[in-house]
Amino acid sequence: MLIRKATMDDMISEMHNQGIGFFLMEASKEYGITHGADFIRTQVFPQNTD
Asked: Model-level pTM?
């Protein structure tokens, strides 16, 4: 039996469509509100195509 080591691409593809980004954004907003922030700013890199 051949066992191969998982690659970063394997791990990333397993995490797609799990709602992780949504939960990170919600946690960011909650943190900001708790600490008195008036707004949140996000940035997306042009290289991010997925």
From this structure: 0.55
